Amino acid sequence: MDIRQITPDYAVSPQIEISDVAEIANAGFTTLICNRPDAEIPPTLHATKMRTAAKAAGLKFVELPVTHSTMTPDLIAAQAAAIETSEGPVLAYCASGTRSTIVWALSKADTQPVDEIIATAAEAGYQIEGVRPHLAAIAKD
């Protein structure tokens, strides 16, 4: 598992395994967000299986699969709401952690400086400079 802290309350990770879920709960996370579409992964890692493991470990589970076509304002708002309403730290995962980082970044573009958002992602190892125009567009709205 490669958990990377984005903020004190939000971390991202590449794809996790069912066997990682208990360790995630033991690390203090209270919410697990799946940003990985089932079509990308084997059935053993599908969201229904992860949801079962998360619930067994006492975690809230949120399924918000991110693709180019599903990264809409509604999905971004749903991710932000899941983070904001969590009773504790949140771990979001996708294939590499990049999509989970980008969704977070887009949700912050109207409240944080774009340079700060990009720098925060870079500190965690995610280079999201390519989404700067999208972040700037949201920041102007």
From TrEMBL:
NCBIfam families given in the database record: TIGR01244 family sulfur transferase
Lineage: Bacteria, Pseudomonadati, Pseudomonadota, Alphaproteobacteria, Rhodobacterales
Keywords: Transferase
Pfam families (alphabetical): BLH_phosphatase
Protein name in the entry: TIGR01244 family sulfur transferase
Residue ranges annotated for the Beta-lactamase hydrolase-like protein phosphatase-like domain, each copy included: 2-109
GO molecular function, one term: transferase activity
